[in-house]
From TrEMBL:
It is found in: Cell membrane. This is Membrane protein. Its main location: membrane. Pfam families: YitT_membrane. It comes from the Bacteria. One of its GO terms (cellular component) is plasma membrane. InterPro entries: UPF0750_membrane (IPR051461), YitT (IPR003740).
Length: 237
């Protein structure tokens, strides 16, 4: 009887956290981001940062399916982020993790739908970054994450009080350095483009409802200018 009551309370808490509207937007975001990773990133050797980049890295070296790697890496990141983000965030994110693994499994049943952009790396980087940025942004906007890297970036942002775009870039660049083990330097340069695009789009989609669209775009442009100025200064140095 006690177990039944606990189970019913558990289901009730999930119903309150996951409204039909939230679930629809989360599934839409997960579908968009995973579609881009499968059809663009995996086909063109342009990687992402965070957990997605680690999935592509481990998939390349081990051959393990992303549908298996995704939940394993997510659980590790959730364990770290729990103290900063709380139980409700983790509950929602677990649903996202399982759904993302399901989407990867679904796309693997079909050949790539989009044209192979291997010979057009800049286009692949920009389009791939848009898929991931818009998709993940929709999920984060609903109070969850599309994977452990979102939880990790949000935890870093909350603990250091930095903009989430900068937290994403910090984790992304770390993964890109590891990715040099199988991706040539020129492809990593394009990967930096895609993680920059996706990071700022996540930030934009997450915050656009909280302030005027023009102000949100202006802030993202200013952040982008600051980032590239830092890069140029470091190169000159």
């Amino acid at each position: 009887m006690k177990m039944k009551r606990m189970f019913l309370n558990f289901l009730k808490s999930y119903k309150e956290l996951l409204t039909p509207s939230k679930v629809c937007f989360m599934l839409l975001g997960l579908g968009i981001s995973s579609f881009g990773v499968y059809n663009i990133h995996q086909q063109t050797n342009i990687t992402e940062g965070g957990v997605i980049g680690m999935i592509l890295l481990l998939n390349h070296w081990t051959g393990i399916s992303p549908s298996i790697l995704s939940p394993v890496l997510d659980i590790l990141c959730y364990g770290f982020a729990f103290q900063f983000l709380g139980g409700n965030f983790i509950k929602v994110s677990i649903v996202s993790t399982l759904s993302l693994a399901g989407f990867f499994k679904l796309w693997e049943q079909f050949p790539p739908i989009l044209p192979n952009l291997t010979n057009y790396p800049l286009a692949a980087a920009l389009i791939g970054g848009m898929f991931v940025g818009i998709g993940v942004g929709l999920v984060v906007r609903q109070g969850g994450s599309s994977g452990g890297d979102d939880a990790l970036a949000l935890a870093i942002s909350k603990s250091t009080r930095c903009r989430i775009a900068r937290a994403y870039l910090a984790t992304d660049i770390t993964v890109l350095l590891f990715s040099l083990s199988y991706i040539p330097m020129n492809r990593i340069a394009y990967s930096l483009v895609t993680v920059t695009v996706s990071s700022f789009l996540i930030d934009f989609v997450q915050n656009v409802s909280r302030k005027g669209k023009r102000d949100a775009v202006k802030e993202i442009q200013e952040e982008a200018c600051e980032l590239y100025e830092d890069i140029l200064e470091s190169e000159e140095y």
